[in-house]
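Backbone-to-sequence.
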């Protein structure tokens, strides 16, 4: 199934606003005037307004210089642009959820869906951080203390030397991609993900993937950040290799096509997403969403969809540590022969 057909199937065979033949490309670089930190809020004015189908070249920032300084990194080794982005920020927190946006899509209204095509994403700075805190993570009882470390990314080799003889390949993605929740919710912390997307920490949403998000406010108000150079499924200590990224996203508006929850696709798989404080409940949500997808787009009975999912679908622990935990279901496209 080609991408445009998938977009229709994911959105239940509705029509959409097609991307223009020659989309405009905008630049959105992290700066004190283009980011917000640690929350979503429908009252935030957009820093950029685009048309459906336009492309945004993003440069996101992760790494408060005071954090790196506190770990002994000399100022001359910390990229100067990080000092500019984090100007006026108090404390030594790493500032992972420094989010570019909001980005408004002209014509988007509640009841619509945004299709976010992640065309390219790559590491742009060599410095990164990682750590864990007391009472958090999958094993809080085993790690009652706090630890942070600086990691250096070899941009030429696209690897991180984690320890002597241990080299981690870079697989970058943005941990936070979300729209503003309904205005009635006010200011919503960006830590737990939700029906609006947000901090899903889904490493399968890298270059070549597409995320579909419901719209709750005029313009959609999309924000992106929390760059990860690499992360294991589960993100067990609450931290990936956190760093600054750049990349291109194309945003397409689907009018009158509501979604209950985020959905996604990779070049090889359909994806549904379950989010809940209980991983068992998250698994039920992701599975039920996949059954809905199969019934609505493949013409299967719900009983047959359930059995097909058991034969071919994988349940993956997206992350197990953000309060609201994540499971995503992956179903291979190769099993379908429809065009």
């Amino acid at each position: 199934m080609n991408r445009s057909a998938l977009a229709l199937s994911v959105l239940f065979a509705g029509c959409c606003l097609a991307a223009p033949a020659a989309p405009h490309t905008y630049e959105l670089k992290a700066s004190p005037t283009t980011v917000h930190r640690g929350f979503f809020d429908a009252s935030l004015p957009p820093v950029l307004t685009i048309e459906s189908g336009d492309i945004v070249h993003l440069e996101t920032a992760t790494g408060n210089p005071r954090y790196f300084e506190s770990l002994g990194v000399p100022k001359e080794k910390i990229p100067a642009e990080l000092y500019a982005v984090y100007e006026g920020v108090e404390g030594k927190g790493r500032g992972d959820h420094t989010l570019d946006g909001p980005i408004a899509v002209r014509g988007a209204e509640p009841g619509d869906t945004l299709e976010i095509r992640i065309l390219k994403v790559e590491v742009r700075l060599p410095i990164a951080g990682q750590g864990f805190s007391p009472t958090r993570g999958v094993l809080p009882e085993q790690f009652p203390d706090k630890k942070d470390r600086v990691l250096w990314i070899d941009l030429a080799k696209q690897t991180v030397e984690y320890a002597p003889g241990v080299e981690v390949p870079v697989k970058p993605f943005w941990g936070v991609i979300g729209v503003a929740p309904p205005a009635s919710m006010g200011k919503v912390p960006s830590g737990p993900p939700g029906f609006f997307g947000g901090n899903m920490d889904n490493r399968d949403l890298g270059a070549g993937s597409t995320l579909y998000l419901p719209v709750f406010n005029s313009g959609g108000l999309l924000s992106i950040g929390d760059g990860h150079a690499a992360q294991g499924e589960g993100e067990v200590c609450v931290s990936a290799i956190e760093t600054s990224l750049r990349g291109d996203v194309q945003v397409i508006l689907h009018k009158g096509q509501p979604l209950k929850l985020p959905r996604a696709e990779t070049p090889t798989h359909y994806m549904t997403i379950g989010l809940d404080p209980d991983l068992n409940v998250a698994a039920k949500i992701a599975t039920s969403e996949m059954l809905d997808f199969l019934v609505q787009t493949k013409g299967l009975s719900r009983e047959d969809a359930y059995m097909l999912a058991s034969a071919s679908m994988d349940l993956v622990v997206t992350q197990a540590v953000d309060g609201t935990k994540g499971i995503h279901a992956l179903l291979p496209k190769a099993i379908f022969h429809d065009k």
